[in-house]
Structure formats: structure tokens, C-alpha cells
Please model this.
Amino acid sequence: MSWECVIGLEVHVQLRTKTKLFCGCRTTFGASPNSQTCPVCAGHPGVLPVLNRGAVDLALRAGLALDCSMASVTKFDRKNYFYADLPKGYQISQFDLPINGPGHLDIVTESGPRRIGITRAHLEEDAGKLIHADASGVSHVDLNRAGTPLLEIVSDPDLRQPEEAFAYLKTLKQVLQYLDVSDCNMEEGSLRCDANVSVRPMGQEALGTKTEIKNLNSFKNVQKALEYERARQIEALESGGTIRQETRLWDDAASRTRVMRVKEGADDYRYFPEPDVPPLTIASERIERLRADLPELPVQVRARLARDYSLGEYEVEVLADSRALVTFYESVVSHGGSPKEAINWVLNDVRRLLNEGDGRLEELKLSSESLAGLLKLVASDRVSTQAARKAFEQMASSGRSAEEVVQELGLEQISDRGALSDQVAAVVAAQAKIVEQYRGGKVKALDALMGMVMRETRGKANPQLVRELLVEQLGEPG
Amino acid sequence: MSPSTPSALDLATSVRSGERTAIDIVEESLAAIEALNPKLRAFLKVDGNGARQRAEELDAARQAGETLGPLAGVPIALKDNLCTRGLETTCGSRILEGYRPPYDATVVERLRGAGAVIVGKTNLDEFAMGSSTENSAFGPTSNPWDASRVPGGSSGGSAAAVAAGLVPVALGSDTGGSIRQPASLCGVVGLKPSYGRISRFGLVAFGSSLDQIGPLTSTVAEAAALFSVLAGPDPRDGTCDERPAPDSLAALEKRDVSRLRIGVPRAAFGAGVEASVTAACRASLDALSARGARLIDLDLDWSDLAIPTYYLVATSEASSNLARYDGVRYGSRAAGHEDLIGMITASRGAGFGPEVKRRILLGTYALSAGYYDAYYRKATQARALMGRQFAAAFEQVDVIATPTSPTPAFPIGEKSEDPLQMYLCDVFSVPANLVGLPGLSVPCGASADGLPIGLQLMARRFDETTLLQAGACLEDARPEPLGLPPIHRLAKGGAR
Model:
């Protein structure tokens, strides 16, 4: 029998607000435990939540980009459960009137473009974090993350292949980064993904029993876990077994999923309207203002890169993966770098720097303007490509301009015809034997002579010019 | 005003003018507390040092030529569910024993800003759940008019403290009558403002869509003065209304009993109300009528809806509001439990009293999957229906009058084993909370045993001014003040 896999994804992204969803605490990642807390997010008696309007705007912005239907009235609800990282004993979330209703996301898969439905994208607050650190068996609670604004984006069960799930996540991340609503950093937890997966015989309408997979810490692992789970479910069904509705954890080391807990009926979170946060009316003017403010989305940027800079398909794909890199590239070009040269430097050298560092362009000491300066030095023959690579490293580590670095390291190449002519003449005069070989037809001897001139000039001579002068002075071989 | 207790307004005037010092007034209050509190148990915590320090600061500020606020030097007691920075706030519960809030409630800041001096925290039913103050984990409070009787609840400590003259004014909170009912049973004035009038920031939540903070005082004028200090928008409470506080005290001067249209729901003066209560309330309405007010009979009858609706909404919200008391971050934690849920369960099992547990269970049940539609959603619909009924009534009348409580103060222990009987005490007071209306209880007479009886007035939402004016008209019209509560006469002699 052939099987069809049905996948739905729940993605939580942390919205890029300065402060939390219901209080004024900062949301900076990596601060010392409980340093970004107040009575409100620590759930003290008597405190009240006050909605962060900036988070609402970011949520609407994402909803607009995902073509979601917008509620004119939205409200918050309490999701009740006990856990040590949940200070109030409930999470403020949205139940029946989410801020963003149905929408969709277009993705490109190996078998062509597909439109994936978005069920909803709602606002909620994050919980804190438990740290089970020391050997004493004591657990610690860090509430820095408690109350951080999240957008939970729920897809329809439209994905059919694990690689489609990968493409969906990659596209979604790109859209959200372009919107600047989230930095979508999985390692810092600002993007998290849970997957629901089931299988059914090809052609069957009814969905099979699904399992939920958690602990997915990279897009690749989402794909791997789904592949594993698909195989596991098919195997179980084909050998006459059944699928239990359960939550499973991805075990990266063992490359498999494991049962975390079995769901006996639906969880009862006793949702009810949050009485402390009044329902929110969203004026159509607000939505129109946000719509007018929407930045270019990845599809639009890709088209423009191909059109305006004559970039190839591969170059566009790699560059457009990061909105920040596109901005950097365009800035290099606007500062006078040639589009063709700039793309090579950006895709190879700049990306290498990013991979070596923490991946953030803003952390680089190299500015787009100074890279453009370097490219101009190369274009005007003042610096060789090889010397430019040396200069680049120095610029990247010191943050100084191309001009300064080239001066300091003496990387400027000698393109002075008169001066080089004398050097060439001197070598020709001193190496009668090699000259003889060359004239005798051994073309390769020219390389030896070139090497000598380069050595004499400590590599600074313009090699193009040296070759030209040698040929000029030696005459045609043979 | 009871003759033994100078009005808070007179006290403030005398401090502002330099006729009296704040420290002198505060010492008097502290002395009265020391003399009477052992018998009354109105206060859970007295902050003598803090109060003296604050009073001295005020006196120094006056010496330095600063203008003091409208409540300068007025000693005030706070119900112990209002957060006070660094000062233990227990909500009358073991689970919060020793808890010192890291912040002040908005009302606490506003009182301080107005020059009031906080002398201590008063007893209450645990987490404000009750109508008698018997549900306090730290023991019941006595009614100053008869120490064997309850002061009402849940703001029983605040009502008793004002009635006994320990402080001229106090704050309480009212979720279903918890200011008005004890005010009625103790013979003082109690105001529950409109929902959204006074910031709830720092009020430990019971039923978030019902809770309001309000004053307990001897006179309507004092209630108006406190209301103006406390009301107004607060960026820390998203449910707090934007409109600024009115000057209700000045508006009292403009009261005109002849323009007052008082709605009288027939059902509120019928079965289930003690004869002495009906008689006293009727008499005061007749007195108002004699002075020119128009009494208009209303068919408004909420007796079948109000109690079930209230106990569904309040308990549902409470079940969620009280989830934070898990022993993880503050408050008491049960020892000897290895796993998290075991620890939480044991901490809550030991920390909460029976009435709180009962309400958490009721609310949890009402919100459960499969019951939500039958209970919580129905209650929400009933609430909306009551809102429409009141809106229709207020097209014909300015205020609606009912007894505050069906009975005067009852003996300690009489109803504590019968929660349903206790819940029925709230029949007249819960509608104002469900609909968000302001409600005021004003003493209007006494039973044959000399127990105080209060008349409740309700007005349109955010029309506290009319409500307070009507209350002042009642004070003008009522036969005679109640005089001193017996406990005061007895203990005062002994203390001197």
C-alpha cells in the first residue's frame, strides 16, 4: 500500500519588542537569571497586565504578510495549567478570537510551488525557563523569558512531505525576518517549532491518528524527525499495529523520536476570557497604516535583485536568504562597488566572516562602504585581487577603511609603467640564459622571468603590466 | 458621624492649618487600636513605626511651608488584600503568611500622596471570600455593636475599625458586596465605585471582572473625599477608565432632594428580608419622600439570576486568579515533597482554608470542558441581561434603593456551616458588581436590638456623584444618628 503523510506545524516566534507583552521588562536574550523581571511578570499577588501595543502592531504586520483575515475585535483568554515556569498558573493567550485568522504562505518545493494554509496566528506570552543544573537535584526558575511576546503561527495540515515542512519553515522564517517582526533565532529560542504528523493510505479522506513532535531545534531536525516519524507510523500500521495519540520528543543524538507523554483525551486548559485585558478593537485605519508600512517581501526582493543587478538564480537565492545581507549588498553597490564584483565578495567573503562570527551583520566591523572602497581600488588597478583579500581580512578585524589598510600594509600595486620598465629591463639583462630559452621557443620561461620581477618588487608589481612589459622587451618568442 | 470620631475632613483641615499635628492624631488612633483591637480583632497588623514616621514627615513638611494634601494626617486602615510595599499582606490566608509585597498598590500611592497615614492592615475573609470575616485564617473579627456577632464581610476588619473609631476611614474591596454589607452591619458608610473607576493595581484579585476598591467611612462626605483621591485613570490597570476623578465632595453641596427620583424594586422589600430591615429602609425612604424625593416602584427582580450568576463568574475567575499561589516563588511552601506537582498540591492543600478551596473547586468545575457553555457562558449571558434590565430602569430613575443586607449582623458561627445561607446574604449587593454599577450603603436605622441597618443605593455606571448626593440626602433625612457602638463606650472608659 502507498501512504500519504499529513503534516501541520505550530511555530512560535518571539516578537521583536523592547519590552514584554504585559509589562515594561526588557526582553534582551542572555541576561543573568531573573534580572529582567518585575512583580507583573513574576506573577505577584495584585498585579495586572497592560497590553504592549507594539506587539499588537508586529502581530498584525505578520498577519498582513501571511494574508490573514484580520479581526476587527480580538481578545485575550487565560489558558490554565500548573507548572513551575508559569508564574500566574495561567498563560495569557488567545482562544476563539485570534488577532490573525486564516491566511496562507506560498512555498517552493522540488515538485513546484505550493500554497500552504495558515489556520491562525495569535498573540500570547511566553513562560519562564527551568534550569536543572546542579547535581543536588534542585531545579531553578528563570523568569526572564516569562511574559515575552510570542506569535503562534499554526499551519493547516497541508504539508505532505518532510521536505515541504523544511521549505515551509525556511520561507516563513524569511518572511518574518524581512518583516523585522522577529529575529527567528532558533538557538536563542526566538523561533520554536512543534510538528503534528499522521499517515493515511493514499486516497483516503479521513486523517490518521497524529503524534506531536517536540524538541525540534533546527529545520533540518524537523525534516529528519518527520521522516523518522513517517517511517515509524507506516511500519506500525503495515505490521498490523495502531498509532497512539501522543507527544514525542526528538532525540537528536539517537536520530529518533521517543514518547514523552500519552494524551488521554484532550488537555483541559479551562480557557476563559482574560478579564484583566479588555477586548481590543482594531480600527481599519490602523491596519491600512500597517499595510502601507509593509516592507518588500522575499518574492519581491528576489525579482528586483535579478532585474536590477543582473544576478543569476543561484546568487539571488543565496543572497535573498538574509534580508540584512541584501541590504549590505545593495549598500556596497550604492557606494560604488560593481554589482558583479560585489556579489562575489558578499556571497563568499562576507558570508564566511558571518559564519566565523555569530552570524550578525551588525556585529561585523566591516562596513558596506569600506568594502565598496576596496572594490574600487581593485577596479582601478591600484590593488591586486590577491592583495585585496589580505586587505579584506585586516579591514574585517580592525574596522578601518580600505584606503588606510592598503596604505599601512603597503598593498598598493606598482602600475607605474616607467618604474616597472626599469625593473623588467634589469631582470632581462641579468638573466641572459633564461631569456635565451624564451627566445628559443620555451614560452614557459616567461613565467620564471615574471616571478623574478615580482620578487624584486616584493609582489607589488601589477602582474598584467609586468607581463606586458616583458613581452614588449623580449619580443615574440621563437 | 459618630460623635467620638472626628471627621477625616475636619482632621485634615486641622493638620493643614497647623491647629493639630499629624503625629498627635496618629498617636490617638494607635492608642485606640491598642485598647480595642484585642477584643475586636479588626487589625491583622498595626504599623505603628511606619505611621509615626509618616506623620512626622507630614508635620515637618508643614513646618517647612509645604501645602499638604486633602487627607493630611488622616489615619487610615487598609484591608489586608491591598499590597503595601514591605508591609506584610496576607489576604487573611496562611498561604501568604509572611508575604511582603515588593510594590505599593496604586491606591496606596494615591493615599500617601494625599497625606493619609496608613496605620495598619485589617482582617478579612480569606482572599475576600465570605460575608462575615469568619473565613479569615487568623480568626474572626467582632462587630463593635455586639462582640458576639459578625461585622459582615469580607471587609469586616475595615468596617469594624471605622465603626469602633479606631480610624476615621478605611479601605475595603467589594466583589459581591464586601464593602457595602459590612458597612451596613457595622453602621458605617461604604462605597463601591463603578467597575473601572479606581485602579485595581495592587488589589489581590478575587473576581477580576467584579472587584473594586472603595472607602468605608462614618459619613457620605468622607466617602466622597476619599473617592475623589482614589479614582481616575491608571496606566497600570488596563480596565481602569480614562475619565478623570470628579470632585464629588464639592458636588455634595449641590444636592437637591426634590429632584431625586428613587427607584424601589418591589421584590427587594418582600420575602426573605427581615422585618426590622424592611421597616428601617422603608422609614428612611419615606423620610426622603417627605423631603420631596419621588419614589418610583420598579418591577426589577433579579432574585433568581443574581446569586447563581455571581457565584459562577466569581468562582470561575477566582479559580484562575488563585492558581499563582503554588509555593514556588513566595508564600508558604509545604516541605518534604520530591516532585513539583506534589509540592504544589501540598502547599495549596495546607495553605488555603475550606471556603477558598470550595470556591476554587466550583470555579474549576464551571470552566471545565463540556461545562463551560452550561455555566460560564450562561452566566455571561445572564450578566448582559441584567445590564439591560438596569439600563431600562435607569431611564426612569436616578438611583435604585434596596436593603444592603437582608438581615442585621448575625451571631458568629450561625451561618459558617451553611455556605448557601451565607451566599444568600449577597442577594442585594451582587447586581452592582455584575453590572459594574456604583453602590453605596448608608446607615438608615437600627433593629430592636440596636443593631445597625443600612440602605443600599445604586446609580448609573460612573455616576458616583448622583449616588453620593442621594446618600447625603439620606443622611439629612434619616431620623437620628446611631451614636456610639457599645464596645467603644466600654473600652474607652477602660483605656483612659
